[in-house]
């Protein structure tokens, strides 16, 4: 069960009056509240305590895999609709990394790395690939698709970069030792988690750059704010599916 919170009613004009740094700090503060994102999510706290059960970790991994394995189409939509050559180059590198792992040198797609973690938990990989998304996962995946098709390209990029990826280094830095100490995982089995710590460190700066260059109007700031908050809320619900095991 998630914690109910009320979004602050800030107008686009109020949001656009902030500097890019102030805007991003405000977004991160809102995304750190209970019921949003990955920061201090109950599953992270329970991993550290060693109280998450293997069946719960299995369900969590299955549903997380089903979401990230569906990322490439809407990443491609951002690339196709982006009119700026420099930004397209960054998007292309992101797509290449998600699909091949070549940018970070891990030599496998990110979904395949998560499957490796799932295999260490005892999951059947073919069954994991074929398993049905639970409603929480479908809602997040479909919202990503909505942003890709119905918002300017920079909106989903900022929403993911600021609302999720900017929290990855601190969150995954907690998950990695918990998996090793409490669940006996090896370095090879948790590459999905370890490789994201340095890979996502720069996304905070990228978020500021995106906002400062492209999300300057009141309407653009409001779209980025609303979509980031909804992305963060839905992501929390996806991770919360572990409770259903």
Features:
single chain, 245 residues, mainly alpha, Heme Oxygenase, Chain A, 14 helices, globular, disordered N terminus
Helix and strand layout, with pairings?
Layout: H1 12-16, H2 20-31, H3 42-49, H4 54-68, H5 72-81, H6 85-100, H7 110-120, H8 125-130, H9 135-150, H10 154-163, H11 168-183, H12 191-199, H13 203-213, H14 218-239
Helix pairs in contact: 2-13, 3-11, 4-7, 4-9, 5-6, 5-9, 9-14, 10-13, 10-14, 11-12
Give a summary of the structure in a few sentences.
By secondary structure, this protein is mainly alpha-helical. Helix content is 68%, strand content 0%. α3 runs parallel beside α11 (168-183), α5 runs parallel beside α9 (135-150) and α9 (135-150) runs antiparallel to α14.
| Fourth CATH level, the homologous superfamily | Heme oxygenase-like
Secondary structure: number of strands: 0
The helix count comes to 14
Structural class designation: mainly alpha
**Would you give the CATH topology?**
Heme Oxygenase, Chain A
- Please write the string of helix (H) and strand (E) elements: HHHHHHHHHHHHHH
Distance between the termini: 13 Å
CATH class: Mainly Alpha
What is the radius of gyration computed over CA atoms, rounded to a whole number of angstroms? 18 Å
Low-confidence stretches: 1-5
Count of individual domains: 1
Main sheet summary? none
Which whole number gives the mean pLDDT?
Answer: 93
Note the overall shape.
globular
How much helix is in the residues? 55-70%
CATH architecture: Up-down Bundle
Provide the β-strand percentage band: under 5%
Oligomer: single chain
